[in-house]
């Protein structure tokens, strides 16, 4: 699944410094009509559709490109809906070629900030794996979710199940997973072969989430055994896990409820008793009971619907392929469906809150409340609304890219995860790393003009570098046992570092080798589970066939079995033309002692590449290896080069440091003709120099010198990298008297590009992203023309609320700046518009803006609204907290509010993926004072139950320490540097 999303995912853009913003009016703003009575009118955009269709076509066998749609009108009284024919999902999966996947597919995942517990935390048992005596063959499950009373307190579900197992070892006890289920132990029967076995009793092991059925005699190995449980029941809550209820407000102002599901990683057991481990795959036959005004959806197609009397109906689904329990799914709702074929899109009914896009082999469903960005259930992909629904009239280029990225990510999972599944959760990076990488490669192919490969280095690699430079990071491959540990590894390391090392592998193996090796791996392991060594061996074998002897296992072990990454030092001797290359572990706090040891002693097998002014812009660079046991390698690059850059296009997962002379030559080149250096390497130089400076590897002012050329930079990626740098500094200085000087410097740097863009209405996708980033900087750092434009544009909207003429690409920035510059009237207007906004993206922009207020009363009211949940949905709680925390005025309000309401927050979000850990990281990201550290440590210590945030707390504490140290080391020098460079602005 993708993390909640983008960094804005609610998870909305985690990771992107998009807090400070405002906007300006460029070009003809599109008009949006906000109809107060319309609840939610969202269109699945043509773009999304196109992405899906193209990917699916590439993925699948030839017939798959022309899906056939079948109209299914089920039981009387039910609204007709259309379902895609995915009659041959398995065949399609079987016939795809890896080439197409590699070439065409990409997925994005949200920057999830989840943390991992390296060491088993408190008292959770580690021996939580099921006994190996039984393997599942099939499950027949019948469920009846009941939400028809319209009284959420009464909502619940009941069910029955028949399971068939292969008996592998003799046993007297059948051990199943379960959680929060009440099972009627008197209605359990067991059959072994043809004989009935007496059940002598049942027992439970709550800490391991086991339900044990004790038998009068042992089951015989080699036979099959059938277990029937006639009745179990469980609660239906709005907890975003297992099956849960959600709701929306219909156009007549009534609340409608629905049931949806999210079973990854360990919540299938919360829906029915089962063997809930990813490698224990089986066939599922599902039957869902519902009332006539509702319809059900699941992974496969309905094969038959029966009336049960009393207005109840049962929908029986076709058998699923052999698959893991965590990708089972269901939705019971009164949604209307929109359908699509290769050429047309039918927008959903505007009176519905949510639409369903049914595309190709899978149904794509957007639901109002969802923990992640989306979930890749085989055949029924479920999304949060902002990750799927897209209104071309109001959405920004960033929204559009986000949707394309998430859809691509989920489709990639059909192979990476659903077809071939990790043998255990410790290898979940095989799912999420591949899906996160395919986001970029797939969209690169479909939309070359989006330059996704360039975006990768900033959005994924530089983003995760920041986390993985902490001593409290963790390896990609991480031992996990208990569900509370499993949840923690759905984090940036798994998603982003996973995708980075996969990309690195592609480059050192060569694309052809990589593609063929993966293809073989997927086809050999179809419908099975795999360990990462099986992937590495398939790639090494393919390389060998092509005459290349590459120890893929050995190389990759250094990248996935230890945390962190190296800084690779390039020392040039112009007299000999040689470069000496060495490595050391990069740490944001360079003096920190590592308390966790590594079998490789924090050294890596590094694929070393370089480019010079003589060969810099062409071809694939040759790879030289610096192995973990070697002290150094020497490269001969020649005596006559003017400059050179290491780690070409940042394909290797490492930072680069140079001798001072070589740094100076690079900076001189940026200042004279920056375009001679590849755009990815320009972004790299900005990011590496800043972070090397932060940690004392080089002079911090060197990094600021590397941004002096930005006045001439017109490309998106370097600006994005610079924005991260500027954001860090501004957070550190936010509460000091130096902030104004720094703002002047950024204004001076951004002013030329701002003026150019404001005068030019050219609007390709990348330009729109650039414009948004530039406006974030210009307005966020107080450039007067930008602030004025935002205030004015917002005022026009306030005059005529039914006609929003604010530029759709700049709404977050505009709203924020106008609310920050305005008073309560502006804030109140944002609040009103939030309550009637009919798209997730618009709501996100308005919520972000309410957090920009310079009125403490308004910020407090906003936080209160979020906890009360009357005006603000539970799913938006995190973005409210983040918006307030990013506002220097709200930083302590948000933290105190969080502490005060911790128990409520934990109760609401403790079990959902992503949320707890991301919240901690976001609220504390600006902490840089001793008293903040003290407070954070004290709270962490006093809080015994942190759920999946255990690791996030450790990381937040480490980051705060580093921030305090940074200010001690650099604040005064920075002030002197700013005296010189900001005054030049005149
Ligand atoms: Zn995913």
From TrEMBL:
GO annotations of cellular component type: cytoplasm; extracellular space; plasma membrane
EC number: 3.4.11.-
Stated name of the protein: Aminopeptidase
Peptidase M1 membrane alanine aminopeptidase domain residues: 363-559
Names of required cofactors: Zn(2+)
Chain ranges of the Aminopeptidase N-like N-terminal domain: 136-327
Keyword Protease on entry: yes
Superkingdom of origin: Eukaryota
Chief location: membrane
Site (Transition state stabilizer): 495
Segments passing through the bilayer: 39-60
Region listing for Disordered, in residue ranges: 1-22
Its membrane topology: Single-pass type II membrane protein
Gene Ontology MF terms: metalloaminopeptidase activity; peptide binding; zinc ion binding
Residues the record lists as binding Zn(2+): 409, 413, 432
BP terms from Gene Ontology: peptide catabolic process; proteolysis
Domain ERAP1-like C-terminal: 643-961
UniProt entry keywords in alphabetical sequence: Aminopeptidase, Cell membrane, Disulfide bond, Glycoprotein, Hydrolase, Membrane, Metal-binding, Metalloprotease, Protease, Signal-anchor, Transmembrane, Transmembrane helix, Zinc
Classification via Gene3D superfamilies: 1.25.50.20, 2.60.40.1910, Neutral Protease Domain 2 (1.10.390.10), tricorn interacting facor f3 domain (2.60.40.1730)
Subcellular location: Cell membrane; Membrane
Textual note on the cofactor: Binds 1 zinc ion per subunit.
UniProt enzyme class: hydrolase
Family to which the UniProt record says this protein belongs: Belongs to the peptidase M1 family.
Active site, per annotation: 410
């Amino acid at each position: 699944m993708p993390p909640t999303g983008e960094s804005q995912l609610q998870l909305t853009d985690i990771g992107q410094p998009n807090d400070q913003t405002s906007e300006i009016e460029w070009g003809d703003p599109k008009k949006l009509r906000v109809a107060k009575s319309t609840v939610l009118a969202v269109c699945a955009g043509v773009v999304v559709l196109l992405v899906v269709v193209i990917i699916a076509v590439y993925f699948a066998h030839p017939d798959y490109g022309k899906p056939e749609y079948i109209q299914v009108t089920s039981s009387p009284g039910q609204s007709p809906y259309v379902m895609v024919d995915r009659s041959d999902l398995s065949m399609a999966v079987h016939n795809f070629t890896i080439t197409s996947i590699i070439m065409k597919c990409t997925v994005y995942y949200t920057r999830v900030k989840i943390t991992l517990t390296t060491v088993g935390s408190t008292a959770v048992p580690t021996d939580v794996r099921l006994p190996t005596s039984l393997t599942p063959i099939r499950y027949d499950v019948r469920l009846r979710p009941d939400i028809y009373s319209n009284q959420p307190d009464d909502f619940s579900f009941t069910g029955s199940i028949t399971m068939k197992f292969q008996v592998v070892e003799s046993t007297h006890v059948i051990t199943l997973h379960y959680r929060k289920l009440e099972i009627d132990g008197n209605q359990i029967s067991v059959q072994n072969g043809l004989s009935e076995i007496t059940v002598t009793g049942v027992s439970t092991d709550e800490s391991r989430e086991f339900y044990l059925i004790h038998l009068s005699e042992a089951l015989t190995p080699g036979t099959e055994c059938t277990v029937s449980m006639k009745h179990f029941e469980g609660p239906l809550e709005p907890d975003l896990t297992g099956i849960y209820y959600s709701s929306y407000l219909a156009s007549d102002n009534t609340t409608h409820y629905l049931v949806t599901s999210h079973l990854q990683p360990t919540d299938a057991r919360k829906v029915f008793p089962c063997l809930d481990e990813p490698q224990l795959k089986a066939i599922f036959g599902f039957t869902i009971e519902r009332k006539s005004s509702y319809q059900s959806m699941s992974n496969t197609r309905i094969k038959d619907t029966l009336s049960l009397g009393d207005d109840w109906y049962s929908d029986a689904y076709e058998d699923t392929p052999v698959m893991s329990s965590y990708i089972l799914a269901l939705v019971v709702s009164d949604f209307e469906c929109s359908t699509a074929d290769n050429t047309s899109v039918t927008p959903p009914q505007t009176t519905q809150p949510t639409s369903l896009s049914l595309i190709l082999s899978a149904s794509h469903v957007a639901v109002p409340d969802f923990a992640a960005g989306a979930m890749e259930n085989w055949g029924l992909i479920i999304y949060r609304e902002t990750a799927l629904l897209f209104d071309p009239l109001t959405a920004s280029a960033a929204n559009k890219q986000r949707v394309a990225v998430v859809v691509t990510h989920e489709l990639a999972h059909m192979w990476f995860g659903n077809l071939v599944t990790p043998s255990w959760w410790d290898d979940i990076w095989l799912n999420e790393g591949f899906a996160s990488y395919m986001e970029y490669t797939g969209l690169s192919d479909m939309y070359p003009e989006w330059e996704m490969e360039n975006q990768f280095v900033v959005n994924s690699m530089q983003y995760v570098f920041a986390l993985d430079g902490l001593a409290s990071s963790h390896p990609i491959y991480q031992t996990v046992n208990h569900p509370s540990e499993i949840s923690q590894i759905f984090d940036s390391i798994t998603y982003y570092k996973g995708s980075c090392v996969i990309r690195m592998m592609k480059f050192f193996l060569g694309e052809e080798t990589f593609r063929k090796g993966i293809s073989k791996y997927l086809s050999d392991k179809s419908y099975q589970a795999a360990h990462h060594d099986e992937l590495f061996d398939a790639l090494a074998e393919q390389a060998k066939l092509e005459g290349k002897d590459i120890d893929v296992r050995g190389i990759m072990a250094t990248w996935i079995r230890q945390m962190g990454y190296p800084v690779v030092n390039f020392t040039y001797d112009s007299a000999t033309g040689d470069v000496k290359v060495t490595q050391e572990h990069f740490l944001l706090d360079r003096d920190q002692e590592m308390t966790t040891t590594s079998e490789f002693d924090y050294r890596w097998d590094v694929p070393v590449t370089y480019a010079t002014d003589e060969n810099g812009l062409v071809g694939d660079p040759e790879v030289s290896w610096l192995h973990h046991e070697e002290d150094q390698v020497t490269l001969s690059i020649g005596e006559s080069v003017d400059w050179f850059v290491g780690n070409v296009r940042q394909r290797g997962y490492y930072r680069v440091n140079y001798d001072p002379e070589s740094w100076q030559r690079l900076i001189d080149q940026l200042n004279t003709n920056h375009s001679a250096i590849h755009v990815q390497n320009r972004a790299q130089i900005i990011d590496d120099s800043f972070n090397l400076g932060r940690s004392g590897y080089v002079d911090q002012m060197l990094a600021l010198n590397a941004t002096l050329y930005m006045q001439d930079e017109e490309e998106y990626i370097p600006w994005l990298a610079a924005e991260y740098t500027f954001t860090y500094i501004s957070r550190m200085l936010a509460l000091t008297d130096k902030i104004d000087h720094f703002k002047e410097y950024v204004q001076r740097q951004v002013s030329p590009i701002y003026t150019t863009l404001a005068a030019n209405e050219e609007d390709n996708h990348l330009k729109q992203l650039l414009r948004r980033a530039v406006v974030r900087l210009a307005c966020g750092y107080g450039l007067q023309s930008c602030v004025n434009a935002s205030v004015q544009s917002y005022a026009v909207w306030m005059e005529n609320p039914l006609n929003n003429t604010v530029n759709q690409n700049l709404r977050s920035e505009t709203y924020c700046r106008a609310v920050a510059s305005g008073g309560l009237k502006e804030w109140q207007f944002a609040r009103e518009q939030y309550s009637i906004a009919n798209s997730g993206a618009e709501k996100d922009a308005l919520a972000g803006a309410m957090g920009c207020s310079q009125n403490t009363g308004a910020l407090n009211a906003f936080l209160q609204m979020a906890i009360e949940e009357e005006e603000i949905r539970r799913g938006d709680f995190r973005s409210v907290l983040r918006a307030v925390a990013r506002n220097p005025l709200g930083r302590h309000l948000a933290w105190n509010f969080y502490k005060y309401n911790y128990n409520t927050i934990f109760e609401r979000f403790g079990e959902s993926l992503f949320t707890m850990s991301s919240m901690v990281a976001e609220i504390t990201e600006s902490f840089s004072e001793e008293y903040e550290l003290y407070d954070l440590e004290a709270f962490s210590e006093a809080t015994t139950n942190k759920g999946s945030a255990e690791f996030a707390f450790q990381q937040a504490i480490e980051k705060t320490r580093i921030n305090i140290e940074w200010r001690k080391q650099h604040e005064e020098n920075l002030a002197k540097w700013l005296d010189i460079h900001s005054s030049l602005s005149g």
